[in-house]
Design a protein that fits this description.
The protein is α+β, with helices and mostly antiparallel strands. The chain has six helices and 14 strands. The chain is globular.
């Protein structure tokens, strides 16, 4: 997609405000084209390799990288967006037994939140949840096309505490838990997935998700082939 982006929602701090927004898809830095799909809220400048989010009726620069694949396969690679947040959190129970068990839970430094539209994520497996649980550390790789980000930064932040609670709850019953969480650095990663036809397999952990569960996959595949 190139030219202009039009949405029926004006995204301000994660909330929808009435009235359409029309923006020319040009990089605020270099003036080059921004790449994305019709439903996207983040667009990448291929020249600058900088993602821009539509927020408050304008483009807001975000930090982002394409993640380096840890596995190899003779398959086409698609890069799908995943938000990442550096967190500092504290948990407290009145129950000393639960408090002691909680100290055995590995600390999470980065929380991952899936940025693309994935149907039935709780059934098929949510990459953001699983990357958080497995304490994944991504490394920057070579530039590549990235589209399909339909979740804003503020919308993604709302998943940080639920992801943390899910991890703690696997070890300790979170009933009565007091959790405080501060969110620091935020990044948007393009996570590599091998396109295996009926399934997509990520090149970090080997997680498989059905191709049919990824919204706009046809458009994402076409953009991966042509870069537009």
């Amino acid at each position: 997609m190139s030219g202009c982006w039009r949405s029926g929602r004006d995204l301000r701090d994660g909330a929808e405000v009435g009235g359409p927004t029309v923006l020319a898809l040009h990089c605020p830095r270099c003036g080059g084209p921004l790449s994305g799909l019709q439903q996207d809220v983040v667009f990448l400048c291929g020249g600058c390799q900088v993602p821009y989010e539509v927020a408050g009726g304008t483009f807001v620069e975000r930090r982002g990288f394409i993640a380096r694949a840890l596995a190899q396969a003779d398959r086409p690679i698609l890069h799908l967006p995943v938000w990442t947040f550096r967190v500092n959190y504290a948990s407290h129970w009145e129950d000393p037994e639960r408090e002691a068990l909680a100290r055995q839970v590995p600390r999470v430094e980065w929380v991952y939140v899936t940025g693309f539209e994935l149907h039935n994520a709780s059934y098929f497996g949510d990459p953001g949840q699983i990357f958080t649980q497995r304490i994944v550390r991504l490394e920057a790789g070579a530039p590549a096309p990235l589209v399909g980000c339909t979740r804003t930064l503020e919308e993604a932040k709302a998943y940080v505490e639920p992801h943390l609670l899910m991890i703690i709850d696997r070890r300790v019953d979170v009933t009565g838990l007091e959790l405080s969480c501060a969110i620091g650095e935020a990044l948007l990663w393009g996570v590599p997935f091998f396109d295996e036809g009926d399934t997509l397999r990520d090149a970090i952990l080997g997680l498989k998700i059905p191709a049919a569960a990824v919204d706009e996959l046809g458009a994402i595949r076409a953009h991966g082939r042509t870069g537009r």
